[in-house]
Design goal:
This protein has helices spanning 15-25, 53-58, 74-83, 98-110, 125-135, 160-163, 166-169, 171-181, 258-270, 276-302; strands spanning 6-11, 33-39, 64-67, 87-90, 115-117, 141-151, 185-194, 197-205, 211-219, 226-233, 238-239. It has 307 residues and is α/β, with parallel strands linked by helices. The strands form two sheets. The protein has a six-stranded mixed β-sheet. It has a five-stranded parallel β-sheet with strand order 2-1-3-4-5, sandwiched between helices. Helix 3 packs parallel to helix 4 (98-110). One of its GO terms (molecular function) is nucleotide binding.
C-alpha cells in the first residue's frame, strides 16, 4: 500500500453496517481511512454517498469493502470484490459451505489480497480473560456448555435459505469453542425446525474426549439475545464469563469499539503490519469451523456423520 488514504465502501446498513459507517465517519481509525460511500437498498443519511456496484468496484480510490449483508450474499459479494482486485472484510459467516469458504480464501491469496472474516466475540475482554484462565488451568475439563438464546429480530434470520443453517448463522460460538479448546469432534446434532422455533443442540468432544454441549435457540417473539458459557474442571472450579444480554452499545466518541478494532485488524493485514502466523491462524480457525458447521448440518438433517 502507498501512503495515501485507504478508501472503504460499506455494503449493507443493518446493525453492523451502521456501526461501521459511524466509526468511519467519526474517523475513529484516523485520517488515513476514508469512507467512500455505501451500497445499500435502505434509505441513507443525506450526507452519505450511495454507490452502485459497478462504480464502487471500478473506482481507483476504493481499496476495500466491508460486507454487512444477509448471510447468503456473503460468498457472491466477496468473490465479486476480490475478482475486481479489492480487499474484503466479511461479517461472519464467510460462506454457507466449507468448500466455498476455501475457494474465497484461495482467490484472495492468488490475487495478493486480504480476506478477513469478522468475529468480534473473540475480541471481548470477557472472552480473552476466560481464555487466559483456561490456558492457565492444570486440572482437566470435566464438561462444558455454551448457549445462545435469541429471537428472530429480522425476517431473513428466520429463513434458513438466507441465514444459513444455525451452525453457520451461529458459527461465532463454534469459533469461541475452537479458540478456547482447539479442534472438536462432533458426537450428536439435533435440530427442531418449526415456524416460530429454531433449536439446535450439539454434543461435541475436545481433543482429550471432554464433552461440551452447544445449544442455540431462536424463538419468534422470545427473549432478547442472551449468551452463556460454563466450563467445569476437576479441581472443583467453574469458569464462566459474565452473561452477554445484547451486543455492546456504541462506544464514546473517538473510542475504538469492537467493530472498529475488527476493522483495525483488517487494515493491519492490508498494510502488511500483521504477522503471517496470525493471519494463517485466523484462516485455519475460520475454515475449520466452516467444516464443523457443515458436519453439524449434515448430521442434524440426516442423522449421519461426515467423513
Amino acid at each position: 500500500m502507498t501512503d495515501r488514504s485507504l478508501g472503504i465502501v460499506v455494503v449493507g446498513l443493518g446493525i453492523a453496517g451502521k456501526v461501521r459507517v459511524r466509526d468511519l465517519k467519526q474517523k475513529v481509525l484516523g485520517d488515513t481511512v476514508v469512507l467512500r460511500g455505501v451500497i445499500s437498498r435502505r434509505q441513507v443519511e443525506d450526507d452519505l454517498p450511495v454507490l452502485h456496484w459497478d462504480e464502487a468496484l471500478t473506482r481507483d480510490d476504493v481499496d476495500a469493502f466491508i460486507i454487512c449483508t444477509e448471510n447468503d450474499t456473503h460468498e457472491e459479494y466477496a468473490r465479486k470484490i476480490l475478482e475486481h482486485g479489492k480487499h474484503v472484510l466479511v461479517d461472519f459467516p464467510l460462506s454457507l459451505t466449507a468448500e466455498s469458504g476455501k475457494k474465497i480464501f484461495d482467490l484472495a491469496e492468488s490475487k495478493g489480497l486480504t480476506c478477513h472474516v469478522e468475529d468480534i466475540a473473540l475480541l471481548l475482554d470477557s472472552h480473552m480473560d476466560m481464555k487466559q484462565t483456561i490456558q492457565n488451568k492444570t486440572a482437566p475439563l470435566i464438561e462444558g456448555s455454551i448457549r445462545l438464546d435469541a429471537r428472530f429480530t429480522k425476517e431473513w434470520i428466520a429463513d434458513i435459505n438466507r441465514a444459513g443453517f444455525p451452525s453457520f448463522s451461529g458459527i461465532s460460538q463454534l469459533e469461541i469453542l475452537y479458540d478456547l479448546f482447539g479442534e472438536l469432534s462432533l458426537q450428536e446434532a439435533h435440530f427442531v425446525h418449526e415456524p416460530d422455533l429454531h433449536l439446535l443442540t450439539c454434543k461435541l468432544h475436545t481433543s482429550d474426549n471432554r464433552p461440551i454441549t452447544w445449544t442455540t435457540e431462536r424463538v419468534q417473539g422470545g427473549k432478547p439475545r442472551q449468551a452463556s458459557q460454563e466450563y467445569k474442571f476437576e479441581d472443583g472450579s467453574t469458569v464462566t464469563p459474565a452473561p452477554v444480554s445484547k451486543p455492546p452499545g456504541p462506544p464514546p466518541p473517538g473510542h475504538k469499539g469492537l467493530f472498529a478494532r475488527d476493522v483495525e485488524i483488517f487494515l493491519s493485514e492490508i498494510r502488511g503490519e500483521r504477522s503471517s502466523d496470525e493471519i494463517a491462524q485466523d484462516k485455519k480457525r475460520v475454515l475449520y469451523c466452516l467444516e464443523l458447521a457443515e458436519k453439524i448440518e449434515k448430521m442434524a438433517k440426516t442423522g449421519t456423520s461426515c467423513s
